[in-house]
Structure formats: structure tokens, C-alpha cells
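Translate structure to sequence.
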């Protein structure tokens, strides 16, 4: 219900620093210890992941990272990262388990990137199949793309943000390789979500953004914001390096950046500019919910599926719980 108040952009109640804060505090008081959570299996994992989601939305990313990492480790203990662990389950339960795993995987990767923390599990240890379509579940196309984006995030953290004492040439090559991977992901997006940005105009699936179905526009925006965020995440050290050089231009080691560095930096700026265009379109269509905290005068912008990593698919695992809850009480 706390997450529901965020999704509906309900005003924060007196004494709350964010919508749903009092509900969340009450929920955390009843949150059991790790041993009890483990004994509850999938349900225990979902509870911790949902707690991480709330913390992520309200920008308490450090605490969210801790909770998401706990959810991931609980899932690993249950073998959800391994192939064949769901063979004895009904197909619908196996699909739910699979999507829950990948949702937590994405959540933990993106929170690690947001806070500058290490990832908890490398891809070489994961053998479970990627999400697939199954009757009664939403299409897997969006979550598959988000999983691929999260993998690139993990590669970026390991390759770009791990101090290996690399030379500038080696570092630039690493960033270029990451950019190639991101561009390849963009080219693989399903046609119904394909976005074309021409000047200040955006088309989704061949239609102007304002005329595209809201669910399609939201999903497409989520995916493209993930991609543009991946460009910025990989290229951010280059932007900082260029900024440092500009302030120390008289010092020989900090001369003009190479043309390769400038091209990569320009790609980051382009990604940021396109992200702003998408956010403006979402604002114009009323897809972003806004709530004003009257006590502090702080605007809270809640964008379903785009919380510090744009995890539209994460909500699939909680869809039935949220839709059945009376979040207006």
C-alpha cells in the first residue's frame, strides 16, 4: 500500500517525508529476520524486493541496495539463478519464479550503479534461462531488454569502475566496447517500442508520442531511458576527466582531451539531451505523477517503471498484489 501511494502520487500525510512513509514504517516493524524470510521462500524474497523498491523510489538508494542485495542472496540460496531448479513446478509458477529472479537481478545491478557499489553476483554464475512468453503473463520483450541492459550495467561496473591501473588508451577502448554493446541493444528493441527522436519530436512505433497508446509510450520510454542511462553511466568518468582538464589546462598532464574522448563525451551529452526530451513528453502526457510535500516544499516525481534504472518489468511480480490492494484507504 505504501508503494501504491507512490504510484498514485498521493500527497504525503502530516509527519511523512514521502507518500506512504507511515505505511512503510509500519510494514518494516513487522519484517521478520533473515531466517524467517528464508523459510517463506518466494514470498519472503518478494517482500524484501518490494521493500527495496519503495526505498529506491524515495531515493534512499543506500538502504535500497542493502535490501535488494538481501533479496538477491535469498534467491541465490533457493537456486533461482541456476537452470533446472524449477523443473518440478507448474509452468505458471516456474515463469513467475523466473521473472522474479530477473527483476531482482536488474534491481540490484541498477542500485549498485546508482550508489557506486559492487555487484553481488557475476553473470558467469547465472545459468537460468532468460524470461520467455507464457499465456497469462505480460509479454517478455520488455523485461528481456531490461535484463540485457542490466548485464551491460554489470559489465560497466566491472570494466569501467574497477581500478585496474589501465592506460588512457585501454580505458577509452573499454568504454567504446561498452558503447557498442549498448548500441547493439538499442537496435534489438521490438518494433512496437522503437522510438525516433527528430529535433523536439518523438515518434513511438511510427506514431507521434502523444498519439501512441499510453502503455506503449511508457514502456518505450522506460527502455530508451535505460539505454541512455547506460551510455551516461559508462561515459561519466570521461566527462569528469574532461572537466578536470578544463580546470587545469595549464598543467601539462591535463591538456586538451583526445578526439576519442571528446566523441565519447558528446555521446553522453546526446544521451542526456534525449532523456530530457522523453521526460518532457511524459510530463506533457501526464504520465509522471507529481506530489508536493507541503512541509518542505519538495516536489516528488514518481515515474512508474523509471526509478533510478527504469525498471518497468519489476512491477510484474507485484502486479496482482498492488491491483488487489485498496491503496486509497
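Result:
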Amino acid at each position: 500500500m505504501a508503494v501504491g501511494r507512490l504510484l498514485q502520487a498521493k500527497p504525503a500525510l502530516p509527519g511523512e517525508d514521502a507518500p506512504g512513509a507511515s505505511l512503510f514504517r509500519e510494514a518494516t516493524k513487522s519484517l521478520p529476520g533473515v531466517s524467517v524470510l528464508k523459510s517463506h521462500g518466494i514470498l519472503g524474497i518478494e517482500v524484501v524486493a518490494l521493500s527495496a523498491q519503495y526505498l529506491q523510489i524515495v531515493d534512499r538508494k543506500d538502504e535500497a541496495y542493502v535490501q535488494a542485495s538481501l533479496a538477491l542472496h535469498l534467491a541465490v540460496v533457493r537456486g533461482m539463478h541456476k537452470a533446472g531448479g524449477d523443473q518440478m513446478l507448474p509452468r505458471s509458477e516456474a515463469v513467475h519464479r523466473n521473472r522474479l529472479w530477473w527483476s531482482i537481478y536488474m534491481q540490484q545491478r541498477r542500485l549498485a550503479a546508482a550508489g557506486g557499489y559492487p555487484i553481488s553476483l557475476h553473470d558467469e554464475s547465472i545459468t537460468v534461462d532468460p524470461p520467455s512468453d507464457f499465456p497469462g503473463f505480460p509479454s517478455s520483450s520488455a523485461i528481456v531488454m531490461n535484463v540485457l541492459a542490466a548485464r551491460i550495467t554489470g559489465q560497466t561496473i566491472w570494466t569501467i569502475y574497477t581500478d585496474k591501473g589501465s592506460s588512457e588508451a585501454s580505458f577509452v577502448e573499454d568504454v567504446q566496447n561498452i558503447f557498442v554493446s549498448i548500441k547493439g541493444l538499442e537496435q534489438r528493441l521490438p518494433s512496437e517500442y522503437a522510438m525516433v527522436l527528430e529535433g523536439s519530436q518523438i515518434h513511438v512505433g511510427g506514431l507521434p508520442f502523444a498519439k501512441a497508446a499510453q502503455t506503449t509510450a511508457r514502456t518505450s520510454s522506460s527502455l530508451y531511458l535505460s539505454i541512455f542511462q547506460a551510455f551516461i553511466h559508462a561515459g561519466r568518468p570521461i566527462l569528469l576527466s574532461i572537466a578536470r582538464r578544463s580546470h587545469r589546462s595549464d598543467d601539462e598532464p591535463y591538456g586538451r582531451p583526445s578526439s576519442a574522448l571528446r566523441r565519447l563525451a558528446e555521446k553522453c551529452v546526446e544521451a542526456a539531451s534525449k532523456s530530457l526530451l522523453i521526460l518532457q513528453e511524459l510530463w506533457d502526457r501526464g504520465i509522471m505523477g507529481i506530489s508536493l510535500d507541503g512541509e518542505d516544499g519538495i516536489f516528488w516525481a514518481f515515474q512508474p517503471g523509471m526509478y533510478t534504472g527504469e525498471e518497468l518489468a519489476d512491477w510484474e511480480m507485484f502486479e496482482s498484489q498492488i491491483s488487489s490492494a485498496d491503496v486509497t484507504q
